[in-house]
Amino acid sequence: MEGTIALDRAAVEKLLSGKEDQSLLRFLTCGSVDDGKSTLIGRLLHDSKRLFEDQILTLERDSRKWGTTGGDMDFALLVDGLEAEREQGITIDVAYRFFATDRRKFIVADTPGHEQYTRNMATGASTADLAVLLVDSRQGILTQTRRHAYIVSLLGIRHVVLAVNKIDLVDYSQARFDEIVAAFGELTAELGFATKVAIPLSARFGDNVIAPSPNLAWYKGPALLDYLETIDVTETEAGRPFRFPVQWVSRPNLDFRGYAGTVAGGSVAVGDEIAIAASGQKAKVARIVTMDGDLPEASFHQAVTLTLDREVDASRGDLLVAAEGRPQVSDQIAAHIIWMSDEALLPGRAYVLKTATRTVGATVSELKHRIDVQSFQPHAAKTLSLNDIGFANLSLAEPIAFDPYEENRTTGSFILIDRFSNATAAAGMFRFGLRRATNIHRQALTVDKAARADANGQKPTILWFTGLSGAGKSTVANLVEEKLHLMGCHTYLLDGDNIRHGLNRDLGFTDADRVENIRRVGEVARLFVDAGVIVLVSFISPFRSERAMARELVGPGEFIEVYVDVPLAVAEERDPKGLYRKAREGGIKNFTGIDSPYEPPTSPDIHLDAATETPEAQAERVLAHLVARGYAGSHRR
Amino acid sequence: MNPPLTQLQRLEAEAIFILREVVATFAKPVMMYSIGKDSSVMLHLARKAFYPAPPPFPLLHIDTGWKFREMIRFRNETAKKYGFNLLVHTNEEGRAQGVNPFDQGSNLYTRIMKTDALKAALTKHGFDAAFGGARRDEEKSRAKERVFSFRNQNHAWDPKNQRPELWSLYNTRIAPGESIRVFPISNWTELDIWQYILAEKIDIVPLYYAAQRPVVERAGQWIMVDDDRMRLRPGEAPENRLVRFRTLGCYPLTAAIDSTATTLEEIVAEMLLARTSERQGRLIDHDESGSMEKKKREGYF
Ligand SMILES: Nc1nc2c(ncn2[C@@H]2O[C@H](COP(=O)(O)OP(=O)(O)O)[C@@H](O)[C@H]2O)c(=O)[nH]1
């Protein structure tokens, strides 16, 4: 191989002088599968002489083994780093590659084109400043091109390059190039990019990748690398308000209390007045501490430790902000969401939301619409599945401070995490607060829960019976209520069938409706607990997250999960209402246990063996649990 | 207003953020310390991240028993100098059985003395997060790995099912028994590492500097004869050469290169003019190009 030397002597000396600060450009390549993304990156690495001899040898060997280019080097193999990827010849996950020229350092995220791996594409896009969107000259703009253009714009990337690839396969045709560029112009008209440039090239043969090509004499613009080396993507920081999510409170000794974090917007100087966004408490910056000595000022992106001139109440998750120039604070926020989990979004289901350093319980209270990536138009939707993009209202367990994503990528972005699998279920961008949290004051009541409970001489709680249809939940719950009543307790029984005929008669049996069903029942049960009553809830309630949500509506010790456990075969055998038979025959859709899942409790408070024990024996066990823990019977009047 | 951060300052800030995020959200973090230049940088970053407090986690070194003597000396001195709590773990069973890179070959040896030892140490101490100094530019499967890399109860990596990782929003939630490997210097290149060592005057093991050392030639590479446990093959006679190491692993699995670089500046200059990648010196990655992925799936760093 000729000239695989990375840099020449002069460049080395420049770097070593320490004066040279090369700027960094982070970009991603995206587009439909097989448009040539991996080939293009491989070509950039190779032609910019960033490959070492041993890497080239490996590449030659792998090309013979896995390559798709006949005997030639298959540059895609340089980036497709997973075994599955090389075997299947596709990109599954984003790969980060690094190269440098005399002018600039680059981090490239090579992202997958398949729709099923869109979440990995979004991962690559979230940290990029520029997108190279590839199209195959023969195919032009495809659905994935549109989807990727949309996601790139949604994630706030302001600069795009349309790489019209495989131009060799259309005879380097200018007419074809112009056609694609026109279509691209239409596609991106409303996507709000600051710069868009189209470049014809052949990744495989290197035309226009690092140098202009005689095959494309009609094209007068820069070659790709030339363009990437020179484009200015810096956003001006001047005038942006200071943002500093507290990451960790540093207390090495009694005299030092510092707030460690990274400046996520604007800058801060010693003496500046700052506020804690949520509480509005104010203080002045006393010191900006680093291991290299105190600083007079900290700029955007800098990781420092701040000390303040007075005691304030702040900890991880709080946002320190400029006293003038405050963020919004709300517990109801409208946001765009990219769904990333195989399990569909269910409005009302409880997720964990993480934004900056703050973590808070959240539900999607209302899904406004789903966005069709073909037309970019909104469509009504009840749920979002893997790779869907939607616009929704979020309801948070507590108010948080945030900025619209377009104003700040750090304080404006969030992820949703599944409470059980801990998977990252979605990524999102805050748009605006729906109401100011400061306006909602809960009615402060003088007769409170404790007072009412006292009057009843019992400890109010929810007894939540869950289990398959036909397990015997209602039978056992009825017996327990009778016994409690005899002991003089105030009780109430909420039964699935009864509630569905009244309060919830507008709900069906889709996953989304099941979630809403349980949410309402949970809220009603909570009111009963508030009223000092022992409330028995008898619902199939098949999903763990909804049961967890109901548990969280009330205080500790006010939710007792009773698992009425029978094997499906036994329940089906009993089939008291003939429902299983109907479901098996296809007469009932979404029947739990048949074509809708039941997620058994992992650690129920009471586990009843309903296959072998009699209902009477089971009821006695529940009662014993209640008496032993002082819910009933101990200080009856 | 200050000028915007330089590219190296950005990398530094990013690493500090990652280090702090782990300490703020995990119960029992640990830092893997392999004594090499990347570990030295990571350690320096950890000191910066928590200053004026000391880094609130111990260092863990998986000692295969086949580290260069200068490495062990450097390790002990560093821990003492900064007051680190240094944990050293060796697969005692493997050692008792005499597992070594000569008889077992690099694959089996690595699995027993490194991967198994690492997994046992993490399980024994109940660490739920472990920092590693791997960089994405080192190797193709590393290039695919997240900064927060989820590991199941068996410490295994599932490359086809990684958590999406957007912005700097790291999902730190795990179930009991599961863990996270965290790579604060994922986005650094070898050049960044050397530039940073130079700028911050970070101490590194002397083996990185050229010196006269006894070596033998194997498969076109210089293997250092560090002590008398190194078995010479028939016809092999150690000769003294001016060599240095670009990367440090176990001997004889790490090869030295001819070099006259005795200062940091010279090392960086040499690196910039290099024609081979640094992992070239590591026989462990050589077996086949998918070998690192396989090791990682088994629980290797
Ligand atoms: N003729 C020609 N083939 C190309 C070009 N770029 C990529 N290819 C081929 O198109 C196929 C898909 O390329 P790849 O880089 O894997 O696409 P990716 O899925 O977007 O990463 C491979 O067989 C490449 O060799 C090009 O410019 N011209």
Oligomer: heterodimer
Sketch the topology of chain B as an H/E string, one letter per element.
HEHEHEHHEEEHEEEEHH
Estimated helix fraction of chain B = 25-40%
Strand content of chain A: 25-35%
How many helices of chain A? The count is 17
Proportion in helices of chain A? 25-40%
Category from helices, strands and their pairing of chain A: alpha/beta
The total count of strands of chain A amounts to: 26
Distance between the termini of chain A: 95 Å
Q: How do the strands line up in the largest sheet of chain B?
A: 3-2-1-4-6-5
Strand adjacency order, main sheet of chain A = 2-3-1-4-5-6
Radius of gyration of chain A: 31 Å
Are there runs of chain A of 5+ residues with pLDDT below 50, and where?
Answer: 1-6, 438-445
Residue-averaged pLDDT of chain B, rounded?
89
Report the sheet with the most strands of chain B, covering strand number, pairing sense and barrel closure: 6 strands, mixed
Mean pLDDT of chain A: 87
Write the layout of secondary structure elements.
The complex is a heterodimer of chains A (637) and B (301).
Chain A: H1 9-16, E1 23-31, H2 37-47, H3 53-66, H4 76-79, H5 83-88, E2 95-100, E3 104-110, H6 118-125, E4 130-136, H7 143-154, E5 159-165, H8 174-188, E6 195-200, H9 224-230, E7 243-250, E8 258-262, E9 268-269, E10 273-276, E11 282-289, E12 297-298, E13 303-308, E14 319-322, E15 328-339, E16 350-355, E17 358-371, E18 378-379, E19 389-402, E20 413-418, E21 424-433, H10 449-456, E22 461-466, H11 473-486, E23 491-495, H12 496-501, H13 511-530, E24 534-538, H14 544-553, E25 559-565, H15 568-574, H16 579-584, E26 606-609, H17 615-628
Parallel strand pairs in A: 1-3, 1-4, 4-5, 5-6, 22-24, 22-25, 23-24, 25-26
Antiparallel strand pairs in A: 2-3, 7-8, 7-14, 8-13, 9-12, 10-11, 10-14, 11-13, 15-19, 15-21, 16-17, 16-20, 17-18, 17-19, 20-21
Helix pairs in contact in A: 11-17, 13-14
Chain B: H1 7-25, E1 29-32, H2 37-50, E2 59-62, H3 69-82, E3 86-89, H4 92-96, H5 105-125, E4 129-131, E5 148-151, E6 179-182, H6 190-200, E7 211-218, E8 221-224, E9 239-244, E10 255-258, H7 264-272, H8 291-297
Parallel strand pairs in B: 1-2, 1-4, 2-3, 4-6
Antiparallel strand pairs in B: 5-6, 7-8, 7-9, 8-10, 9-10
Helix pairs in contact in B: 1-2, 6-7
The complex binds guanosine-5'-diphosphate (GDP).
